[in-house]
Amino acid sequence: MTPRRLPPPPPTAQPNVFPLEWDSGAPITYDLFELAKRELAAIAADEGAKPGDKKRAERELVKITAYAAGSGPHTEALKLVEEFIKKDPEDLEMRIFQAEVNIWDKNLEKALELFIPLVKQNPDNAAIAGGFANAAAKLRTPLSEEDQVLLMKVADRAAAPDNKDPLLVARAAEAFATQLND
Question: DSSP string spanning 84-132?
Answer without folding.
Answer: HHHH-TT-HHHHHHHHHHHHHTT-HHHHHHHHHHHHHH-TT-HHHHHHH
